[in-house]
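Dear H.,

Thanks for agreeing to be a second pair of eyes. The structure we're designing against is below in C-alpha cell form, covering all 338 positions.
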C-alpha cells in the first residue's frame, strides 16, 4: 500500500470515528489517542518514512504533516461536542438570567473633588492651566517674592534634584502663565505638589493643590471674597458661611485665610473643628506688586487676586476620611467606596 492510499484510508476511518463521537457512542479523547497519541496511527505512518526513497521523503513528510493538522483541527471541533447526557443539561439553562457582573472601576476621590472644583470655577469664567512639577527656584520661589532666606526654601520642606526643585505648591503656575500671556488672566491650576515632610495621618510627601489667579483692571478684595464665598457654598452647600482671617504669604498683599463654618456641626463646635466652629479651607490674597514686576506686568495698571487650596484636605472633610495616606495606597477596598 502506498503512503498516499494509507492516508486516504486513515481519513475515511477517522470520518467514521468522528460520526460515532457526534452520536455519543464514543468520546473525543479516545479518538485523539487512537490517531494522534504517541503510539497512534499517525505516528505509525511517520515511522514508515525510513523505508521511503530519499527523493520522495519531502513530499511524504508534507502529506503527513497536512494530515496531522487536519486531524488536530477536527478533534478540536469534536471535543466541543457535548458528552452523552450533557445536551439535556444545556436545555435546562435559563437564558433570561442576568450575566455575571463585570466589575467597574471608579474615579479616584481626589480626581472627583478636583473635577468638582474645576466645574465651580468654570462658572466664574476660569480656564484651566498646567505648570511643571519639576521646576526651578525662580518659578517656585524667587518670582513669587520669597526672600532669599525664607524658611520655605529650607531643605526640610523642598525636594531638590540638582538645580531643580519639585514644586512645593501650584503657585509656580501663576508665574509660568503670566510670563507666557498678557493680562487679563483668569486661570485655575490644579496639580500635584511635593514636600519633604514626615509622613503621618495629616501629611504626605505628595499631595494636590488647586491654584487660582485672576488679573484684570480694578480687581478688588471684594471680588476675591465674593467669588470664594460662592465657591464654598457650591462645594459644601448653600448654608455654609465663610470668614476671612488676615494671614501672610510672600506673593500676596494683603493675605488671608478663608474658613468655612464647620460642615459637621454647622458651627456649634465638634471634635472635627476642635470646637472652633470653623474649618480652614484655603489661602488667598491680592497679588503682590513684586510678583507683577517679576513677570513684567505693570502693577499700576493691573490688579489681581490669587488663592490656593489643598485638595486632600477638602476631600478628607467632604468624605470623612481620617488618614491622608489612604488616597495614595491604591487599596481597592478604600477606593470602591467612592
Ligand atoms: N501656595 C500656598 C501654599 O502652598 C497657598 C496659597 C496661598 C496660594 C495664598 C495662593 C495664595 O495663590 O494667594 O500654602
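And this is the sequence the design step returned. I haven't edited it by hand at all.
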Amino acid at each position: 500500500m502506498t503512503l498516499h492510499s494509507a492516508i486516504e484510508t486513515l481519513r475515511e476511518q477517522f470520518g467514521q470515528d468522528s460520526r460515532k463521537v457526534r452520536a455519543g457512542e464514543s468520546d473525543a479523547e479516545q479518538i485523539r489517542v487512537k490517531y494522534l497519541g504517541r503510539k497512534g496511527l499517525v505516528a505509525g505512518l511517520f515511522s514508515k518514512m525510513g523505508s521511503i526513497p530519499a527523493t520522495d521523503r519531502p513530499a511524504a513528510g508534507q502529506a503527513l504533516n497536512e494530515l496531522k493538522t487536519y486531524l488536530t483541527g477536527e478533534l478540536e471541533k469534536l471535543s466541543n461536542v457535548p458528552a452523552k447526557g450533557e445536551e439535556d443539561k444545556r436545555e435546562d439553562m435559563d437564558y433570561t438570567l442576568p450575566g455575571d457582573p463585570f466589575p467597574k472601576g471608579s474615579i479616584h476621590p481626589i480626581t472627583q473633588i478636583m473635577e468638582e472644583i474645576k466645574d465651580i470655577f468654570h462658572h466664574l469664567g476660569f480656564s484651566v492651566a498646567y505648570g511643571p512639577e519639576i521646576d526651578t527656584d525662580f518659578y517656585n520661589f524667587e518670582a513669587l517674592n520669597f526672600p532669599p532666606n525664607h524658611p520655605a526654601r529650607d531643605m526640610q520642606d523642598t525636594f531638590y534634584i540638582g538645580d531643580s526643585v519639585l514644586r512645593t505648591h501650584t503657585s509656580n503656575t501663576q508665574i509660568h502663565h503670566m510670563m507666557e500671556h498678557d493680562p487679563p488672566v483668569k486661570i485655575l491650576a490644579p496639580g500635584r505638589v511635593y514636600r519633604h515632610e514626615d509622613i503621618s495621618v495629616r501629611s504626605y510627601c505628595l499631595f494636590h493643590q488647586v491654584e487660582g489667579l485672576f488679573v484684570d483692571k480694578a480687581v478688588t478684595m471684594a471680588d476675591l471674597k465674593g467669588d470664594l464665598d460662592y465657591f464654598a457654598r457650591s462645594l459644601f452647600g448653600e448654608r455654609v458661611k465663610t470668614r476671612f482671617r488676615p494671614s501672610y504669604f510672600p506673593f500676596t498683599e494683603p493675605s488671608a485665610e478663608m474658613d468655612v463654618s464647620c460642615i459637621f456641626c454647622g458651627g456649634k463646635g465638634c471634635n472635627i473643628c476642635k470646637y472652633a466652629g470653623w474649618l480652614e479651607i484655603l489661602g488667598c490674597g491680592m497679588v503682590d506688586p513684586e510678583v507683577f514686576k517679576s513677570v513684567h506686568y505693570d502693577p499700576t495698571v493691573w490688579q489681581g487676586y490669587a488663592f490656593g487650596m489643598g485638595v486632600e484636605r477638602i476631600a478628607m472633610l467632604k468624605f470623612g476620611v481620617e488618614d491622608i495616606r489612604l488616597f495614595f495606597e491604591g487599596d481597592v477596598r478604600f477606593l470602591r467606596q467612592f
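Two observations from my side: The longest strand covers residues 206-216. The domain at 109-335 is CATH 3.30.930.10 (BirA Bifunctional Protein; domain 2).

Warmly,
E.
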